[in-house]
């Protein structure tokens, strides 16, 4: 029986995702055209956080691997983009972003091969080390990579055809921050369509199988190592693309932009939205982008200095992360479902003090 | 030659601190199968407490003692209020929980104490001892570092090997159900384990801070080094953690002295990956290689 | 005397034990028999407080044990040796034994250790070694010796014969019989190996799918051919 959603959005997953993407594009155009420069820049940031979070949520939620090192892959993407945009004849923007994703893909493959053999806390520790290690590299190679100061990034000229096209549709001239927001959201839409299809495909089912029943998956002929490496690579590639966009928006690639905190905040963003859900990743990205301003405002009203008030946002992310893990491990949406199921199952069943498996 | 000796002595001193931190991680891992990544900001915030007291004019030793005691309390609180409520056996949830705590404590410290760099005093000299004409790299504070870590380790050995309480704590860590059946109050033992681990973590926080700068992220690198040291030792074994800490301290000091201090975390990553891929059970495991 | 009344317990929605009642008299061995999945292990786990019953009661003398937590049972004189994996292999043999003694308020120094070693000479030779090196039979001896260190009045034993050579099983059962005769210990013995269990038991309780089938003297159970075929497999 076709539901209303089926009828509106199309029945096959691909058509559904494409329809959603088109709808998304319309929303993006409307929102970006009706907001000012400051908001445009925020939306650009939401786009790159969203892409990185989308990749990470696929890795953690679908494949069950954890990475605290996605800030490092973002750094790799950002530096790649910065280097390619440096010369007198900078590369075309699509090429730059592809390269940012590509270099991160290569790095992700390297790390992923090692990571595929690790699990849980070991994987967490290794990727944590990655997050701490990578910002040191540009400092060491200060000549080429700008040291502590980092590399400044020149925003490429807005292509005439793009400015014309947007003018034709909206009747407005294009500012560079609006242009970057467009670029970011186009990338996000393309990435999310690809990720959504991947998740629904055989590859996605393989990942879930590896996450849920390692032994059964292996018996079913799934190459565990390959499935894990692939998930890691896909996720690192997203982070690289996000890093490239970040460098463009921030107009700089510097070590201080890729601290451990960035990786941890990405993680908490996807936990808040619910692991494994792209919508959740987008919600998390929105929180990362818009919550700080809001909360910092409250903090200033309470008499905190700017610098201290800026710490309220991470405090809230952290607290909510802890609460979600403790009380709704499936994310906020999943938690509501589970609570309902628990209530239903509770009627008339004897309770056990331990949660060990049933032993006769 | 002079530089090599300097490097080795610095490495051993740092290695003792990493060893202490690794030991804290191992104590908690053994008992609760959780790698407490929040150990770093926990140690950071207790060090800040000491700094506030010292800046208020109290002696270094008052600050030192308060930091250790508050570490003990913080560890117990974290176990009772947070970790105890973690249900299920999902490894990822345990990791995310400690990282959530990491973010919370980090933000709290920045909120309360500010994020600027503040210098932390050292109770002993930071200049190398004179031997004849040459200055060797061992400082008064370095000696204090080594001695205090050794004293703490000695006390832990006494506790675990020599007392009934230590025996109960070990039993509770290895098999909760059997321990309960033998009358051990497992919950209390786990709280105590977290408290002791946090105390040891606080000690390493104080030792890293001594004579240097303190800011909310100053322990972030140390949690990585401590974790790697613990993994080198197999993550299960306290003596392994100590050996791992010393080896890592030496190795990183060599990298720092001869290549560049910026690459120390990278070297640490390389060492970690090499060990995990070649000897997943740690450098000192004779038993079956555990799946990592 | 251990009295179990209408005991019902389960894991989540699964009921593993359904209204079981029996008594185990002082100075006797009560064998709990039945096929895999009959609820034998759950019965012991519920008695010792590892599983909370949803209905029914457990009494030891005048103490009501029904809601007592597992960690307080040892102090009340109840020792539970769980199936197969009771040894803490990371500790030495002697540390395992010392662990058993910790609940006692009156400390007797090394005397009780000596008694345990006299009872199980094999353990004495390995007192300083990790319990990891012990054989299956030695492990079973160690957990029994450790349980006895607490000087219990009731001993719950879960499948002590599991995976052991027949010669060792005979040794352990002989020892149980003498403990009961000498010290007036109350033993509840869960066994798959019904024939051997009934040979030393005074009474037997047969469970099937969580319910009590019959409770009678060991001799009567061993003599009931129909029952033996249906539930005891010999």
Keywords:
heterotrimer, B: 292 residues, mainly alpha, two-stranded antiparallel sheet, 11 helices, 4 strands, 5% strand, globular, C: 234 residues, Rossmann fold, six-stranded mixed β-sheet, four-stranded antiparallel β-sheet, 10 helices
Architecture overview:
- Chain B: It holds the Pfam family BPD_transp_2.
- Chain B: It is a multi-pass membrane protein.
- Chain B: The chain crosses the membrane at residues 6-27, 34-54, 60-82, 94-115, 135-160, 189-211, 217-235, 240-258, 264-284.
- The complex is a heterotrimer of chains A (360), B (292) and C (234).
- With 360 residues, chain A is an all-alpha fold.
- Chain A has a domain at 14-257.
- Chain A has helices at 4-9, 13-34, 37-63, 70-84, 93-115, 120-133, 136-140, 142-145, 160-170, 176-200, 202-212, 214-219, 224-250, 260-273, 278-301, 306-309, 312-327, 331-346, and strands at residues 151-152, 252-253.
- Chain B is mainly alpha-helical and 292 residues long.
- Chain B has a domain at 23-221.
- A two-stranded antiparallel ribbon of chain B has the order 1-4. In chain B, strands 2-3 form a two-stranded antiparallel sheet.
- Chain C has a domain at 2-83 and 152-232: Rossmann fold.
- In chain C, the strands form 2 sheets. Chain C has a 6-stranded mixed beta sheet with strand order 6-7-8-3-9-10, with helices on both faces. In chain C, strands 2-1-4-5 form a 4-stranded antiparallel beta sheet, with helices on one face.
- The mean pLDDT of chain C is 88.
- Classes of the chains: A mainly alpha (360), B mainly alpha (292), C alpha/beta (234).
- The interface between B and C is medium-sized, with 17 and 26 residues.
Q: What is the assembly state of the chains in this entry?
A: heterotrimer
Morphology call of chain C: globular
Please give the order of strands in the largest beta sheet of chain C: 6-7-8-3-9-10
**Biggest sheet descriptor of chain C:** 6 strands, mixed
Number of strands of chain A: 2
Assign the structural class of chain C, choosing from mainly alpha, mainly beta, alpha/beta, alpha+beta, or little secondary structure: alpha/beta
Give the fraction of residues assigned to helices of chain A. over 70%
Integer average pLDDT of chain A: 83
SS-based structural class of chain A?
mainly alpha
H and E order of chain A: HHHHHHHHEHHHHHEHHHHH
CATH architecture descriptor name of one domain in chain C: 3-Layer(aba) Sandwich
CATH third-level topology of one domain in chain C:
Rossmann fold
- Supply the number of helical segments of chain A: 18
The CATH first-level class of one domain in chain C comes to: Alpha Beta
Helix count from the secondary structure assignment of chain C: 10
Largest β sheet strand count, sense and barrel closure of chain A = 2 strands, antiparallel
């Amino acid at each position: 029986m076709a539901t209303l959603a089926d009828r509106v959005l199309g029945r096959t997953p691909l058509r559904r995702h494409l329809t959603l993407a088109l709808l998304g594009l319309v929303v993006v155009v409307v929102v970006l055209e009706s907001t000012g420069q400051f908001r445009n820049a925020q939306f650009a940031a939401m786009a790159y956080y969203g892409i990185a979070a989308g990749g990470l949520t696929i890795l953690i939620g679908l494949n069950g691997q954890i990475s605290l090192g996605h800030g490092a892959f973002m750094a790799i993407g950002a530096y790649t983009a910065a280097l390619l945009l440096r010369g007198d004849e900078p590369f075309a923007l699509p090429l730059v972003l592809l390269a940012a994703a590509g270099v991160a893909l290569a790095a992700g493959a390297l790390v992923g091969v090692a990571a595929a053999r690790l699990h849980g806390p070991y994987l967490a520790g290794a990727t944590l080390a990655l997050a701490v290690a990578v910002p040191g590299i540009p400092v060491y190679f200060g000549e080429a990579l700008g040291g502590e100061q980092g590399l400044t990034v020149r925003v490429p000229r807005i292509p005439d055809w793009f400015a014309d096209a947007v003018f034709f549709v909206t009747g407005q001239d294009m500012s560079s921050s609006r242009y970057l927001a467009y670029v970011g959201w186009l990338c996000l839409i393309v990435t999310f369509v690809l990720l959504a299809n991947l998740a629904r495909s055989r590859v996605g089912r393989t990942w879930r199988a590896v996450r849920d029943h390692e032994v059964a998956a292996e018996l079913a002929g799934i190459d565990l190592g390959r499935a894990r490496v692939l998930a890691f690579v896909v996720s690192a590639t997203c982070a690289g693309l996000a890093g490239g966009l970040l460098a463009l928006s921030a107009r700089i690639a510097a070590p201080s932009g890729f601290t451990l905190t960035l990786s941890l905040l990405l993680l908490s963003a996807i936990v808040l939205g619910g692991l494994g859900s792209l919508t959740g990743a987008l919600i998390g990205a929105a929180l990362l982008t818009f919550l700080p301003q809001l909360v910092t405002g409250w903090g200033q009203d309470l008499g905190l200095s700017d610098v201290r008030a800026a710490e309220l946002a991470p405090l809230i992310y952290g607290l909510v992360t802890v609460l979600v893990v403790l009380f709704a491990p499936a994310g906020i949406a999943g938690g509501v479902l589970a609570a309902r199921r628990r209530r239903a199952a509770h009627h008339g069943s004897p309770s056990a003090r331990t949660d060990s498996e049933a032993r006769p | 030659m002079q530089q090599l000796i300097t490097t080795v002595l610095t490495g051993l001193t740092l290695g003792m601190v990493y060893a202490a931190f690794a030991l804290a991680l191992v104590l908690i891992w053994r008992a609760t199968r959780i790698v407490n990544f929040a150990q770093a900001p926990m140690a950071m915030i207790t060090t800040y407490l000491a700094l506030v007291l010292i800046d208020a004019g109290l002696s270094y030793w008052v600050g030192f003692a308060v930091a250790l005691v508050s570490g003990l309390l913080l560890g117990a609180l974290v176990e009772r209020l947070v970790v105890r409520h973690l249900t299920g056996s999902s490894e990822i949830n345990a990791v995310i929980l400690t990282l959530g705590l990491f973010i919370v404590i980090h933000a709290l410290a920045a909120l309360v104490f500010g994020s600027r760099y503040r210098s932390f005093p050292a109770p002993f000299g930071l200049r190398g001892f004179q031997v004849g004409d040459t200055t060797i790299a061992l400082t008064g504070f370095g000696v204090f570092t080594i001695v205090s870590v050794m004293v703490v380790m000695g006390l832990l050995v006494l506790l675990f090997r020599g007392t009934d309480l230590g025996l109960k704590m070990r039993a509770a860590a290895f098999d909760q159900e059997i321990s309960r059946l033998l009358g051990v109050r497992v919950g209390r033992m786990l709280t105590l384990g977290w408290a002791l681990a946090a105390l040891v973590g606080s000690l390493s926080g104080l030792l890293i801070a001594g004579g240097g700068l303190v800011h909310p992220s100053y322990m972030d690198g140390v949690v990585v080094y401590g974790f790697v040291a613990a993994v080198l030792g197999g993550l299960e074994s306290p003596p392994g953690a100590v050996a791992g800490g010393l080896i890592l301290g030496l190795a990183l000091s060599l990298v720092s002295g001869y290549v560049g201090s910026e690459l120390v975390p990278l070297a640490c990553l390389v060492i970690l990956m090499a060990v995990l891929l070649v000897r997943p059970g740690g450098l000192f495991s004779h038993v079956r290689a555990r799946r990592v | 005397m251990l009295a179990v009344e209408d005991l019902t317990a389960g894991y989540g929605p699964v009921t593993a034990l359904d209204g079981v009642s029996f008594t185990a008299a002082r100075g006797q061995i009560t064998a709990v028999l039945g096929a895999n999945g009959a609820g034998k292990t759950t019965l012991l786990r519920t008695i010792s407080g590892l599983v909370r019953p949803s209905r029914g009661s457990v009494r030891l003398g005048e103490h009501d044990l029904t809601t007592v937590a597992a960690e307080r049972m040892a102090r009340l004189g109840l020792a539970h040796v769980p199936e197969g994996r009771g040894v803490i292999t990371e500790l030495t043999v002697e540390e395992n034994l010392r662990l058993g003694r910790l609940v006692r308020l009156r400390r007797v120094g090394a005397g009780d250790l000596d008694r345990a070693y006299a009872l199980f000479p094999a353990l004495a030779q390995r007192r300083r070694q990790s319990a990891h090196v012990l054989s299956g039979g030695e492990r079973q001896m160690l957990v029994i010796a450790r349980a006895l260190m607490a000087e219990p009045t009731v001993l719950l034993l879960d499948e002590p014969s599991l995976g052991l050579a027949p010669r060792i099983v005979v040794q352990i059962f002989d020892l149980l019989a003498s403990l009961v005769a000498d010290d007036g210990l109350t033993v509840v013995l869960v066994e798959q190996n019904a024939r051997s269990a009934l040979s030393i038991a005074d009474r037997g309780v047969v469970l099937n799918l969580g319910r009590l089938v019959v409770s009678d003297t060991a001799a009567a159970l061993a003599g009931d051919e129909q029952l033996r075929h249906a539930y005891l497999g010999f």
